[in-house]
Design a protein that fits this description.
Elements lengths: L1 E8 L15 E10 L3 H15 L9 H6 L4 H10 L2 H20 L3 E8 L8 H22 L4 E6 L3 H16 L14 E3 L5 H22 L14 H14 L2 E3 L5 E3 L1 E5 L34 E2 L1
Parallel strand pairs: 1-4, 3-8, 4-5
Antiparallel strand pairs: 1-2, 2-3, 6-7, 6-9
């Protein structure tokens, strides 16, 4: 059994010089992890929280440690405008978070949408498309591991939640057959103060993928506060580790899919820029796999 925790960073605001703090990207993503790792991963994450929020070390109740979040937006703000100590602590936190995923065999999956200046952005449609795509990747991983799984989305509002589930429900119950057989139920919703690992997903998406995408695809947008060269160390130091943590697979016609997928609406640059300047795409560095017959896909880890 696998669990998949999904959060988002960014929103549907138009990228416009009149709104210098508008998010220039929208990211929907997170990680998958085997259920046997859930308890230890949670405890390890709570210890990371205590390490980087010293006030939690003397908390009288476990619930206080669980409820208190380290928001990814605060971490990237420390990297962008914090003093040297705060920047160093933020970088070390990101390093620790990646270490947790590596030790527990987690895999990353995300859709990154780079906005165009002055163009309206359909947040509802993009989010729904992203959830559908991530479920396809999750299904491929489940098929490869002969496993079943459930996706947990960070809850927003009912009006925003519903469209993101319908796209999966219709694929599972359409007349032509269930194409997401490993996914046992349509995505469910949780709150980060009750589903601790959604907090971990927030840190991955908001404090790492979001600033790296801004630096990789929008470094020329100097008027936007999120497009800051202070994020360069994240891309240079952690890009290679992100690439290795992806779940990638070939579809039935041999095309590479999954992992961290970027839709760059400005300049149509490749997803590989997320992993550092000049990095090869993941399909160039993984071991090729044999095509399987009509039943399924094989993963590349």
């Amino acid at each position: 059994m696998y669990l998949c925790y999904i959060d988002e960073a960014g929103n549907g605001q138009t990228l416009d010089p009149a709104k210098p703090d508008a998010p220039p990207v929208l990211i929907v993503g997170g990680f998958t992890v085997q259920d046997s790792h859930i308890k230890q991963l949670t405890w390890d994450f709570l210890n990371v929280k205590k390490r980087y929020r010293p006030q939690l070390r003397n908390a009288s109740r476990l619930s206080e440690v669980i409820y208190t979040e380290i928001k990814g937006s605060d971490v990237r703000k420390d990297i962008r405008v914090g003093n040297r100590d705060r920047r160093r602590a933020a970088i070390l936190l990101v390093d620790s978070v990646l270490g947790l995923l590596e030790r527990h065999g987690a895999r990353l999956l995300a859709r990154v949408w780079v906005k165009q200046e002055g163009r309206a952005f359909d947040e509802t449609g993009v989010y729904s498309t992203s959830v559908g795509s991530l479920n396809e990747t999750f299904q491929a991983q489940l098929l490869d591991g002969h496993a079943r799984g459930v996706m947990i989305l960070d809850s927003r509002t009912k009006s925003k939640n519903a469209p993101n589930v319908h796209c999966v429900t219709t694929r599972k119950y359409r007349a032509g057959g269930d194409i997401l057989k490993g996914v046992v139920e349509s995505p469910v919703f949780g709150h980060s103060d009750t589903h601790t690992l959604l907090q971990l997903s927030d840190l991955i998406v908001s404090s790492l993928l979001f600033p790296i995408a801004c630096h990789a695809y929008l470094s020329d947008v100097t008027w936007n506060v999120h497009c800051d060269d202070a994020y360069r160390p994240l891309r240079e130091r952690f890009g290679g580790r992100l690439m290795k943590l992806q779940f990638r697979y070939r579809d039935p016609v041999g095309k590479w899919r999954g992992g961290i997928v970027v839709s760059d609406r400005r300049t149509e640059q490749p997803s590989s820029l997320m992993f550092g300047p000049g990095k090869p795409v993941a399909s160039e560095i993984v071991i090729p796999v044999q095509q399987v017959d009509g039943e399924g896909l094989r993963s590349v880890l």
